[in-house]
Specification:
479 residues, alpha/beta, 7-stranded mixed β-sheet
Length: 479
């Protein structure tokens, strides 16, 4: 089955039990760069959802018995197929999500790399004890049916982070994309029909009701969710009734700490992308930039110069665009609240600060806020948009305390030449990932997860693969 996605943009169907499924009721998909509706997707009702669950349940009884090697081979083949169709997915991703070409390439080729990387992973049985009389092993058995709930900021990559390990572990998967960005996920699961038996991987599209049915279903064994901490709380409450396993990758308020020995001009571009990659619609974006007071003025000047000289906010389909729009109106309105709050409190904008409500798309200018109070909303909360507070520090213990003074603990970064200071500070930060003189470096073999209210569980690495299994200990008396 050869896909030519952009030639069939009016044909977006769900995949349930290996079949293409459409519905009379549909949901619109908008291009955030111009607010136009360019596609319609099915609005899955309760009956179709239950059909998907029933099919996944039946498929699980067979898929779990497929040897590891064959499951790995299927996921590897899917990664190769995605790579072959990368161009179509890149264009489709820009249209539905808004990200420019470079960001779309990063996500699509990254998704293919993840599929191939996870396909190489395997959980071996562990020999706990053996002598002439007894043998004890611990093995990893697949959990069952997985509900994968995917956000709109990285719609395909964060789906793959769930799909690949679940399939390799022997689980079956039902994907629920964000209603804002369902298209790449629908086409990806359509592509997967070439490599997987019916029911092993399905994709259903719909709104909040669909998510609630998924988290409450007694026939779904695990929820893998990426999204806000507030929604994660609802997922956890709903899953509790059936003691579902959950992996929750939630919000962040990542600090970036700049030491006094940096080269301001050299570090400024790196700090910019730490904060504004994907237009700051990124759980792991640096959302608080702590700069030592001795280099504060130089670093902020270098940042302003870099933004002024290099950054173009616009339609991601245009080659000159550096950053695209906010993905949807709901998030656009939330980001506007932070601009209004900064203005009402008299905080100074170093660059940006004015949003054009009359623009064709949901565009927000890159904005730096000059040393607002630690208690301000822009410091304490997660805007999930391109507005960043710059903050001064002078005492190491104090800046570590300020960095940790949050309910979040997803990621952090530290920048400087003194490797002892970098390591010393990193080991005291309460975050699942701490980058030193780099940022946003991920790997299929690198554990990723949050501390505190930034999440529960782990994605990627063998630790993440194990999240889709139950451990089972088998003891044998030989005589």
């Amino acid at each position: 089955m050869e896909l030519s996605m952009l030639k069939i943009t009016s044909d977006f169907s769900m995949t349930i039990n290996g079949e293409s499924v459409r519905t009379q009721s549909t949901l619109p998909v908008q291009n955030p760069a111009n607010k136009s509706v360019f596609a319609e997707v099915p609005d899955c009702g309760r009956e179709l959802f239950e059909e998907a669950v029933k099919g996944a349940r039946a498929a699980f009884t067979k898929w779990r018995r497929v040897p590891w090697e064959q499951r790995q081979a299927a996921v590897l083949a899917l990664g190769n197929a995605l790579e072959q169709h990368a161009e179509e997915f890149i264009e489709l991703l820009t249209r539905e999500q808004g990200k420019p070409r470079a960001g779309a390439e990063w996500e699509i080729f990254g998704s293919a790399a993840w599929l191939k990387g996870i396909a190489a992973q395997r959980l071996e049985d562990e020999l706990v004890f053996e002598d002439e009389q007894r043998k004890v092993i611990t093995r990893y058995t697949p959990i069952g049916v997985v509900g994968a709930i995917v956000p709109w900021n990285f719609p395909l990559l964060l789906a793959v982070w769930k799909i690949a390990p679940a399939l390799v572990a022997g689980c079956t998967v039902i994907v629920k994309p964000s209603p804002y960005t369902p298209l790449c996920d629908l086409k990806f699961v359509e592509l997967a029909k070439q490599f997987l038996p019916p029911g092993v991987l399905s994709c259903v599209t719909g709104g909040d009701d669909l998510g609630r049915w998924m988290t409450a279903s007694p026939d779904i064994d695990k929820i893998a969710f990426t999204g806000s901490t507030e929604t994660g709380r609802h997922v956890m409450r709903s899953a509790a009734d059936t003691i579902k396993r959950v992996t929750l990758e939630l919000g962040g308020n990542d600090p970036a700490i700049v030491l006094p020995d940096v080269d301001p001009k050299e570090v400024a571009p790196k700090l910019f992308w730490a904060a504004f990659q994907n237009n700051a619609q990124f759980c792991n974006a640096a959302k608080r930039l702590y700069i030592h007071e001795s280099v504060y003025d130089e670093v902020k000047t270098a940042l302003v110069e870099f933004i002024t000289d290099n950054v173009v906010v616009g339609d991601g389909a245009q080659p000159q665009t550096t950053l695209g729009p906010i993905q949807n109106k709901m998030q656009f309105d939330k980001v506007k609240e932070y601009f209004a709050d900064c203005k009402s409190n008299g905080y100074e904008f170093l660059v940006g600060g004015e949003i054009d409500d009359a623009a064709d798309g949901w565009f927000v200018p890159v904005t730096l806020v000059d040393n607002p109070p630690e208690s301000s909303r822009i410091v304490q909360e997660e805007p999930f948009g391109p507005i960043l507070p710059l903050l001064k520090w002078s005492d190491e213990d104090d800046v570590i305390a300020r960095a940790n003074d949050t309910i979040f603990g997803l990621g952090a970064s530290v920048w400087g030449a003194d490797t002892d200071a970098l390591q010393r500070i990193a080991e005291q930060l309460e975050a699942g990932t701490v980058w030193l003189n780099e940022v946003h470096m991920y790997s299929p073999n690198q554990a990723f997860g949050g501390h505190k209210q930034s999440g529960l569980g782990c994605e990627n690495s063998l630790h993440g693969l194990a999240e889709y299994t139950n451990w089972q200990t088998i003891t044998l008396r030989k005589s």
